[in-house]
Amino acid sequence: MASYPELEDRVVLVTGAGRGIGRGIALAFAEHGARVLVNDLTDEHARETVEAVRATGAVADAVPADVADRAAVRAMVSAAVERHGEIDALVNNAGINVVSPFLELSDDVWERTQRIHHWGLFYCAQEVAPRMVARGDGSIVVISSPAAVETYEGQTHYASAKAGLQMLAFGLAWELGGSGVRTNLVSPGWIETELNREYLWSEPDLRERVVRQIPLGRTGSPEDVARAVVWLCTNEAAYVNGAVLRVDGGLLAGRLKA
Asked: What is the Cα–Cα distance from 246 to 51, expressed in whole angstroms?
């Protein structure tokens, strides 16, 4: 495993880290000695990840908040900075994926999807980035999706949110790069988590059909995504800004032109 000593004692805020990819990211930063702030909607979910991180000997704290609520995000960041010092890296991972055909799509599902994905980054970045800019250093990593560039059945609202999220991240990379703050995206493909494991096994041949689309011949794990996220926050990625790093086993390689 690669070693990144520059991450030791750095403060990393990971949103939506109560489980799945977010938890994998939190644990990966902990392996390198970072202090991890674990955000999730509820304290209960955040605490589960905090306990897992602390079990490795690393420092972690729960910072529950609804990232779709500006006041909640402001209070979360303020309390986190007061307890742990300035935030060195923000990993914008929080998200939901409610499948709904467009003609049956409700206002509530549309708004909640946009707010958590798109507005969540807007709120978190506006609270964290000014502090990074003032120090002349910081890293923002946004978890994107193949849906940012191609949509799927019942996913129009999700794809719209991810496309907006990606363009917002590009804007941050453009506007904040000159101040020493880098913004990049990681786009996971089929990643096996607690949330989608049942779906992958919901039909006898569904998993096989999914894997056939992936040149590497397997689904990914949260650890696969986490390694890419961590790398983007290290000195090795010092000249990487505004990039989309696809962690999808080659899923889009034959469907999109470079």
From this structure: 30
**Number of separate domains in the chain:** 1
Active site residue 162: yes
> Is 257 among the catalytic positions?
no
pLDDT tens profile 11-26 = 999 999 999 999 999 9
- Out of 4, 123, 144, 145, the active site residue is 145
Q: Whole-angstrom Cα distance, residue 97 to residue 157? A: 9
Catalytic site residue from 139, 158, 160, 187: 158
pTM of the complete model: 0.95
Would 258 be classed as within a structural domain? no
Number of H helices, E strands in the chain: 9, 7
Q: What percent of the chain has pLDDT over 70?
A: 95
Residue 210 domain flag: yes
Range of the domain at 56: 5-247
Q: Is 145 a catalytic residue?
A: yes
Residue 239 sits in a domain of what CATH number? 3.40.50.720
Residue 257 falls inside a structural domain:
no
- Decide: helix, strand or coil at residue 184: strand
Asked whether residue 86 is assigned to any structural domain, the reply reads: yes
Render pLDDT for 61-87 as a digit per residue (tens, 0 to 9): 999 999 999 999 999 999 999 999 999
Q: Residues 4, 139, 162, 187: which is the catalytic one?
A: 162
> What residue type is 44 in one-letter code?
E
